[in-house]
Design goal:
6 strands, globular, 3-stranded mixed beta sheet
């Protein structure tokens, strides 16, 4: 299993040993067993071109204003998937809708990637 490190060089404790296929999109569910809620700890497979909306953006409520689709068909071909680490309560947007969501966020004044500790106004 590959090892992941934070920007400061600290090793990341991966919660799940077997990566989940999240290529279909949707909200990444939280688990009471996960201790580090504010760190990327979930090993997953995502389709190249997918978009991960960070937790601070999701918590701001801006995604509640988005009325389009974010989920699509799950990719089962492993050659089309990349291994990544995500955190609970982030939103994965299917690659088919990633451009629309990114444009929506730009219209709301949010550009990705976000800076560490960046604050957002509450949208709801």
């Amino acid at each position: 299993m590959p090892h992941y490190f934070t920007e400061k060089g600290k090793a990341v404790n991966i919660f799940n040993k077997r990566p989940r296929n999240l290529s279909g999109g949707g909200l990444i569910k939280d688990s009471p067993k996960i201790k580090e809620k504010e760190e990327d700890t979930l090993s997953s497979y995502l389709e190249y071109g997918s978009l991960v909306v960070p937790k601070p953006v999701v918590q701001s409520g801006v995604m509640d204003l988005y009325k389009g689709r974010i989920t699509g068909q799950k990719q089962l071909c492993m050659t089309q998937l990349g291994r990544t680490v995500v955190m609970p309560n982030e939103i994965v947007v299917h690659k088919k809708y990633a451009g629309k969501v990114e444009n929506f966020l730009k219209k709301k004044g949010i550009t990705l990637p976000i800076r560490p500790n960046q604050r957002f106004p509450k949208f709801v």
